[in-house]
Every structure is written in C-alpha cells, then in structure tokens.
Amino acid sequence: MYKETNIRTVAKGFSWRFFATATTVVIVYIFFKRLDLAIAAGVVETISKVALYYVHEKLWQRVRWGKKKIEPFNLWFTGLPLSGKTTIANLVYEKLQKYDIPLERIDSKDIRDVIPDIGYSREDRNRHMHRIGHLIKTLQNNSISTIASFVSPYRESRKAIREMVKNNVVVYVKADIETCKTRDYKGVYAKALNGELQNFSGINDVYEEPQHAEIIIETELTSPEEAAETIIHYLKKHYIKL
Amino acid sequence: MYKETNIRTVAKGFSWRFFATATTVVIVYIFFKRLDLAIAAGVVETISKVALYYVHEKLWQRVRWGKKKIEPFNLWFTGLPLSGKTTIANLVYEKLQKYDIPLERIDSKDIRDVIPDIGYSREDRNRHMHRIGHLIKTLQNNSISTIASFVSPYRESRKAIREMVKNNVVVYVKADIETCKTRDYKGVYAKALNGELQNFSGINDVYEEPQHAEIIIETELTSPEEAAETIIHYLKKHYIKL
Fold first, then answer.
1. How far apart are CA B155 and CA B163, in angstroms?
2. A165: exposed, middle or buried (C-beta count within 10 Å: 0-12, 13-18, 19+)?
3. pLDDT tens across B179-205, in order?
4. Is A23 helix (H, G, I), strand (E, B) or coil?
5. What's residue B56's pLDDT?
6. Which residue, among B174, B129, B180, B119, has the nearest Cα to B150 in the 3D structure?
7. Which ranges of B61-173 would DSSP assign to H, the alpha helix?
8. Nearest-CB residue to B28 (from A12, A41, A52)
9. How far is CA B79 from CA A79, B92, B175, in A?
10. Beta partners for B3?
11. A3 with B68: CB under 8 angstroms?
12. How far is it between the farthest Cα atoms of chain B?
C-alpha cells in the first residue's frame, strides 16, 4: 500500500498550475484585450495558487470519504505436479504488475520451504489447504488479491478454499500425466514411480479433476503466454476495473 | 486498501474551485479595479476549471511516481494465559483505527478456531509460531501492520518471529500467576491444575519471560486504558508518521 509523498503533491500542484494559469491568461485576455495585464495576473495567480494547492491536497489526504475499498480476487491454480502451474502463475503475476492492483503470489514450494514438515497425506494436505485459505482470507480482508498455485489434488480441499475466500477463480492446468513425466526435470515422477516418494498425486495418490473450474488451460495446446493472456482477459472482464 | 471514487474527485474539484476562484476574483479586481469584470472572469474560470480539475486528477491517479510504500510494524503481545493480552491488544487496535494505517488483528484464539488441531506441545507451538510468522511477513510485504496476541511461552519461537518479521515490537503483558488464577473465568487454570489440560503455560509447562521486550506492561499496576496509551505513544514515536 502506498501513501502520497510531499514531493508528489508539489509536482501535482505544478502540473495543475501549468494548465490552470494558461486558462486564466486566456480568460483575462478575452475580457480585457490586454496581454500585459493578462500575463501579470497569471504570474501573481501562479505564485499564490501553488501554495494553496499544496495545502488543499494535504487537507484532503486526511479525509477518508469518497475512497472505495478495492475488491480482491483469488486466482487458484490446480493441476498435476509439473503440469505448468507455477510457470503460468508467475507469468500472470508479472503481467498484472502494470495494473497497480495489490497482489500477493503464493506458491506451494515457497510455503513448504518456509514451513517444513507439512506432510503429503490426505489429512496433512487438507489441513494445509485450510491454513492457506486462512492466509488468503486475511490478505483479502486487506484488499490484497492472490495468485496461488498448489497441486491441491482433492475436491474437498478446493471446496474448502472456495468457501473461505471470495471471488475465487479456479484455473485447472490440464496436462496428460505422460506429458508431465517427460517434463520431469526434478526427477520427482521417477522417484514416485519407484516408490521413493509416497502420496504423489497422479502416481500413487489420486488427482481429482476439478468439475467447476472457471478456466481450463490445455497445456498441450496452449503456450504459457497464451494461457496468461486468457486468464488476464477473464480477470479484466470480472474483477479488474480500470 | 482504497481507491479514489469519481465522486470524491469531483468534490475535491469543487472545494478547490471555491478557494481558487476567490483568489482569481481578488487578483483581477486588484489589477483592473472593476468588480463586474472580475466576477465575470471568475464565473467563466469556474466552469472551465472544474472540468479541467477532474481530468487532471484522474490522469494523476494513473501515475505511480511519488507514492511511498507504508512501512509496517508488528506488535507482538506475549504473556501468561489470562494475563490480559487480548484485552489490551483489542484496545490498541480500536484506538489505532483513527490513524488510517492498514492493520490486521491476529489473535491466538481466532486462529485456533479456524484451524483446529494445532496442538500445544513445544514442537506444535514452535511450528505454529513459524506459520504465524509467515502470515505476518506476507501481510508486511503488502504494507499491512499487525497486532498479534499469543501466549508464545518459548524464547526460541519469539526469536523466530523477530527474525522473520520487521519492526517487531514485543509487548510483555506481565501478570503474577496468582492474579491470572483469580481472573480464571474460563476455568482453564482450574483444569490445568487438576491435570485435565496438559502443556498449560505457567502450570504444567514453562513460560519463559522475554528478556528483550520493547514494552513491559505490569497489569497489577496499569489499567488496560493506560497500557494502550503507552503502546500507542511508543508506536507514534517509532512507526506512525502522520
């Protein structure tokens, strides 16, 4: 969140003054047909009004009235490991920077790095999702939108998120399990297949496909760039009022 | 977080116009000594400039330059169960409303209601504190200050919080254990004493007093109102720039 610095208020004063004095000089000239007096009046006006503008702005900065709370959304990326969630989510996050919306990026990996021992059992995952829901809700209370990417394989936990947060947009990043295996640069699918990793969604644990996703990205047919554009288009239509 | 509504911009335009036109009329009168022309110029100026002001404000709202990120703080209340943390924290939260700072209240009880099964063992508590630290950090990334109240009996977890967040202000709410017992309207001390509650700080688990608290509140000597004032005074000195 931002507040207005004094230098910004001064700059606004000067920029306003440029346009305002120009109009004054024209008006005075139209009435009196004397350019010298018109310009003199413009000069006096400029000096007195830049100061007045500064005071006027600073007084208004103390008034809350007429400010509207920004309505946040939650973009929820779900899909198999290595389906491309993080890549697309990061791209959307980058592209949204220019819209000046308060926005937080939440990624499964970052959270598991900061808070280890979360676990991967059904119960662990559901409890973890509940905590993430609480985090998103708290951010939303403060008008902050979120871009979250989690495998989130169970319908029940995605449903819990939907009930906890508002303006929830589920993006199902759909990739064939065989495609995900070929993208296995981390070697996690290999580990899951030979039993080193347990509870691995799609291999030795289920991934329950979303039935009510707002957006479905077919990664075999869509580039990350196109996917990001589709998502931003959806957000602009529903949540980003410029 | 807030954004400026169109009606607010219009109102600022009118309020500015009142002062600005008054100056114009005076200036024109000084130069030409003709009140009729001065007023006529004022009228034309008013009409053209209210519109210009609106456009000028709306253009500036798209400019990011000159806005400064608000620096957040974390007020961390620690103390025995029923020492008075929540009461004082709530009072501080209420009193800070008028300062228009983005602020979130985080209370142990609320979080344990939303996310059950957190546990009370040393390991559970430390892990829980780590998650709370992550929540505060995420809020701080978005300029949101926090008022957190947790028994937080272990030095190591309070230290972890201090390392994770910035502008950390520990408030030690100090109460004699005998005083806390007399305040036992929830009956929790009674339950801990007869063994129904395990890991109860101060009874069958330690409460490690803070050694570096920024503020110490002696609840036997200080009313919640006085305590809140002391804390707000500290915040105004260090973190709240008006």
1. 12
2. buried
3. 998 888 888 898 888 888 888 898 888
4. helix
5. 83
6. B129
7. 85-96, 108-114, 122-141, 155-164
8. A41
9. 44, 16, 8
10. A68
11. yes
12. 93
> CA-to-CA distance for A1 and A142, rounded, in angstroms?
10
Give the strand pairing for A74-78 and A168-174.
parallel
Strand A2-4 with B67-69, pairing: antiparallel
The residue type found at B81 is P
Give every CB contact of residue A18 below 8 A, 6+ residues apart in sequence: none
> Which residue out of B29, B131, B137, B146 would a mutagenesis test of the A interface target, given it has the greatest number of A Cβ atoms within 10 Å?
B131
Residue A29 and residue A21: Cα distance in Å, rounded? 12
- What does the pLDDT average to over B84-97? 96
What's the CA gap between B102 and B87, in Å, rounded? 21
Of all residues in chain A, the one with the smallest CA distance to B18 is A56
In chain B, positions 166-195, which contact chain A (CB-CB < 8 Å)? none
Chain B, residues 37-56, CB within 8 A of chain A, namely: 37, 40-41, 44-45, 48-49, 52-53, 56
pTM of the shown model: 0.82
Superfamily of domain B74-238 in CATH is: P-loop containing nucleotide triphosphate hydrolases (3.40.50.300)
Q: Residues of B14-39 as b/e, b for ≥16 C-beta within 10 angstroms?
A: eebbeebbeebbebbbebbeeeebbe
Those residues whose C-beta lies under 8 Å from the C-beta of residue B232, and which sit 6 or more positions away, are: B92, B95, B96
The number of CA neighbours under 13 Å toward the Cβ of A183 is 15
Distance from CA of A186 to the nearest CA of B (A): 26
B68, B117, B142: residue with CB nearest A102: B142
Q: First-to-last CA distance in chain A?
A: 17
DSSP codes of every residue in B168-207: EEEEEEE--HHHHHHT-TT-HHHHHHTTSS-S-BTTTB--
- Pairs across A and B, CB distance < 8 A: 152
Confidence of residue B227 (pLDDT cuts 50, 70, 90): very high
Say which residue the tokens 């109860």 belong to.
B200
